[in-house]
């Protein structure tokens, strides 16, 4: 009888605590591993998105004199600067009376969707909280070709180098762009809410650089599409035109005014923190200024 009672008794409190401690240790090991594996998968799918968009950009350029997409640019009214998300329900961004304002950077990207070269879903990074554009007008489904812009920032996870600049040598033409010019990347974090793409210098520590990295991947870095067609995950926004570690900040304009014609910034001036504002644009031919930002 004593033997049966001993065999039938439950776990002691000490044994339960030991078991609980073992479970906690196992969870602490495997949960971060699973989270890292999930983020790795999302980065790969984000890379695939940019590669699909790259093919759409290439196709668009082939049919448009090797120029990348751009809606109406009116230098007489605004020689530089950009707007975003205007006139989404307009049927044609180039029509007289269109609600799409000149210098709209997101409407420029939407030209790829209007042309049927890429779906709205490819503009959503799997690591972000964005959702594909619903393609609705007045609660009814409409074709992409009947719209002129993304509905809002929640439908776009990426930033496009602004095609609007008063810099004499700046042209978004595939024949003219430097191979390491950043064309598209995970969306710029901007300068609000604790983020600041203008704060850290190019040689800052990784923890400081995180403030200037995209929020799509938890400030760890951003996938970047370059003019030569390759996509690379970069742990710093200083990954544009340059040499070695001294490179352009892809999320800022080098200066608030264009450089004189025929001049290029000398190193390390090319890796200046730069500036972010809606009323400025790229300052020279190698100046990637990827917008919109999370603030727009």
Report what the structure shows.
With 296 residues, this protein is α+β, with helices and mostly antiparallel strands. Helices cover 24% and strands 11% of the residues. It contains four helices and nine strands; from the N terminus they run αααββββαβββββ. The longest helix is centred in the N-terminal third of the chain and has 50 residues, at 13-62. The mean pLDDT is 92.
Keywords:
single chain, two-stranded antiparallel sheet, 4 helices, 24% helix
Counted by DSSP, the helix tally is 4
Quote the distance from N terminus to C terminus: 77 Å
Task: Report strand %.
Answer: 5-15%
Largest sheet: 5 strands, antiparallel
Number of distinct beta strands: 9
Unreliable stretches: none
What percent of residues adopt helix (DSSP H or I)?
10-25%
Structural class call reads alpha+beta
- SSE order in H/E notation? HHHEEEEHEEEEE
Q: Which outline best applies?
A: globular
Biggest sheet strand line-up? 6-5-4-3-9
Average pLDDT confidence is 92
Radius of gyration: 24 Å
